[in-house]
């Protein structure tokens, strides 16, 4: 996955397109309020999915899985505040922590006894991260700033009513931009690709995700051919069954198929490196996927698609935030 600290150098702005960092339109967009541009208009009729700080983690992650969400805000009935946000990565990191590097179970914990509060607070009882919250009258730049700080979903207060909030995701921003903004260009710099062999165990895959703090990686065969992808949301397949975590990936998704990887049930979005980012964003918005695989075609040994990079929703939003920051700094200097 792309390192967003260097995204400004990795973006290639097509000369025929609008260069956002210098355009009056983009600077105007940054200064407008969330409410003014209508970002949350479609969310007004969508019910809020939230969790209680003292909910059991199993029921909490069941709720995330059932709603197909990566995260949800957490409300504390004691303090009467939105205290944090529960991310599916939290469960992955917790599960991985139960195994050592040799995949031996080092701690056998009864999950039914663990609450969100237990999982997400430090030894002093303080939540490790705050709930990302802004108001509907805050600027687009404030929203991008939170996305740039690695929050994938941000809570937007719609009124003085504490429970009247909407949750806006990075993918929602991408969908809005597809309809409203010009093309940015494309990531062109090759970077080391994090991937995993299909014969590796599921716990190895989740450990890779946890250690690199990422949401998904491509699954490849011994020749490097793209077979599938695994993401943090796939932790739902184990249903906290520790034995299933010790299955190889080709069995984890598809039990009793042998060691030949079957045709994935999930569609992967692939594109060539020269694909315009506008097109890639459009495909992300249309299919609601969170990552696109850049592939090259290799004809040797019958290989057709070899992944060379992964572009995620976070990468694109991070790039936009980087440009936004450069734009604001330049305007202040001028």
From TrEMBL:
Keywords: CBS domain, Repeat. Signal peptide: none annotated. It comes from the Eukaryota. Residues 264-328 form the CBS domain. The keyword Repeat applies. PROSITE patterns: CBS. PANTHER family: AMP-ACTIVATED PROTEIN KINASE, GAMMA REGULATORY SUBUNIT, CBS DOMAIN-CONTAINING PROTEIN. This is CBS domain-containing protein. It comes from Dictyostelium discoideum.
């Amino acid at each position: 996955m792309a390192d967003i600290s260097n995204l400004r150098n990795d973006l290639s702005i097509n000369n025929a397109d609008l260069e956002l960092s210098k355009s009056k339109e983009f600077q105007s967009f940054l200064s407008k309020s969330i409410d003014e541009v209508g970002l949350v208009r479609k969310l007004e009729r969508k019910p809020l999915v939230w969790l209680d700080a003292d909910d059991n983690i199993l029921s909490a992650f069941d709720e995330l899985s059932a709603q197909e969400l990566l995260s949800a805000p957490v409300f504390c009935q004691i303090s009467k505040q939105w205290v944090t946000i529960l991310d599916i990565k939290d469960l992955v990191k917790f599960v991985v922590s139960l195994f050592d590097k040799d995949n031996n179970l080092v701690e056998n914990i009864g999950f039914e006894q663990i609450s969100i509060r237990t999982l997400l607070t430090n030894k002093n009882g303080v939540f490790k991260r705050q709930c990302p919250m802004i108001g509907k009258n805050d600027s687009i730049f404030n929203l991008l700033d939170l996305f740039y700080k690695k929050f994938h979903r941000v809570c937007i207060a719609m009124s003085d009513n504490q429970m009247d909030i909407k949750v806006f995701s990075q993918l929602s921003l991408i969908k809005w931009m597809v309809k409203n903004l010009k093309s940015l260009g494309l990531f062109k710099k090759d970077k080391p690709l994090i991937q995993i062999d299909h014969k590796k165990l599921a716990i190895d895959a989740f450990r890779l995700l946890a250690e690199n703090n990422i949401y998904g990686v491509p699954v490849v065969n011994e020749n490097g051919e793209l077979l599938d992808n695994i993401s943090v949301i796939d932790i739902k397949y184990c249903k906290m069954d520790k034995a299933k975590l010790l299955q190889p990936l080709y069995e984890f998704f598809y039990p009793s198929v042998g060691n030949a990887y079957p045709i994935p049930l999930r569609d992967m979005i692939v594109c060539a490196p020269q694909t315009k980012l506008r097109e890639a964003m459009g495909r992300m918005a249309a299919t609601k996927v969170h990552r696109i695989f850049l592939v090259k075609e290799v004809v040797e040994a019958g290989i057709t698609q070899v992944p060379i990079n992964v572009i995620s929703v976070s990468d694109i939003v991070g790039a936009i935030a980087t440009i936004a920051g450069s734009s604001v700094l330049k305007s202040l200097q001028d």
